Fold:
Amino acid sequence: MPQYGSVFKDETKLDITYIPNRLPHRDSELRLLTEFFSFILQFPTKMAQRVIITGDVGTGKTVLSQRFGADITHEANKLRINLRYVHVNCREYRGSLFLILHHVVSVFHPTFPKRGYSAEELLRILLQILDEENAYVILALDEFESLVEREGSEAVYKLTRLQEIRSNKPQRLSLICILRNLKVVEQLDASTRSTLQSNIISLEKYSKHHLIDILNDRITLAFKPLAVPDDTISLIAELAFSEGGNARFGIELIWRAGKYADAENLDAVTPECVRKAVSSIIPTMRKSDLASLSFHEKLFLLGIARLFKESQKAYISLAEAEQAYAVVCEEFGAQPHSHTQLWKYLQTLSAVGIVEKEVSSAGSTGRSTLIYLTRIPIRELEKELSALLEKGEV
Amino acid sequence: MPFWKREKCDNIMDVEDVFSSRLRIKILKILVQVGELNVSEIARRLGVNYNTTKEHLKVLEDEGLLQHKVFGRIRLYRLNEHSPKTNAIRNLIEIWEQNP
Structure:
């Protein structure tokens, strides 16, 4: 909505949920994805497809899948094929196959009960619904890592194989698995892996030139004419490029910079607005993610951040993190929680995407959990956590 | 919709008998509002037990006002869209709710 004195024309076009009509520099990937699913428009009953979309943060995985989903659903509807594209962020459903399937069922029956049956029964129910309504679903499993981490091979096996063993019934459920790193797929068992790995679309990082094109597209939609000078766009593209070619970061940055321009009653978004906006963002992680952590999760994460800062190591062990956490607890006058509890906190931090973890079995003394902090600047993280803890936002 | 079933019954009840129960009216009201629900959830919203709810659902289904669909162990009920009586009830409840 246009506002008096605002640089924005329509800031919703910068929202993470907005799906643009055009995806600059992702034309060939969109064509390939459409090609993988072209059978649906001709012989929908004959097969189900599985595609993996992989790429780093901000390379356009989600928007590519969503644009494709909107386009193919539109085409299918024109041909009177009852096709639904359902996009699920697995992390939002805590990686639970049951909750994910319940979401899909609720597309058809919004008040479907949440209790009283297993994930496998729910999958059968979903196939029953699809048979009865002669419908087809392309299920996009965004942040697929979360599902594999929680449910392992079993869940993916069920999703891919259950409908295949139904005799003489049409194939109804296709999958798009969206993930950052293909290493996750290696954790699956061989047969599940083989059903998934045939179609992989890898998204390369955007170059600065690509990012400028993307930003220009969005700015035209979201800002008033001439509200964002070329200098500002170039600066944002540079920053987004240094963040690993992260277009999402760039789009969030231009939105924030626009807010700073509005707050100062400026006619245009200046590079100075961008600098102010940068200092308010922790790259790839929203402050709300940190604020939503529990008191002890924050203490645990602060311990981890300090340990990384002091040790300059690439990774630390859970045992080391526990010791650092104990020190932080002492500082904040809190009773430390048990090892089991900390392990659960680590699962949460990993699921939220703040840390990454890996179980190492290389040593002679058994398995140990290793913690990585790859994408977040440690100083920023420590500063933000300390501020939250001191403010008592627990 | 061929997959929604309705129990058949030969004894047609009088309108005053169907509407003599506060719970039956409440079931109809809930289903007008939310579309479809399973038995346990209807019971929870009514604040009565499962068996009582099932009995009232059976009465309404026998009268052709409701239909159900079975998904494994789940039984979803909704208003019978093909019944003129149901349309009349839906109108009554909606007008009632919109004009307090």
Q: What stands out?
A: The first helix of chain A runs from residue 27 to 36. The radius of gyration of chain A is 23 Å.
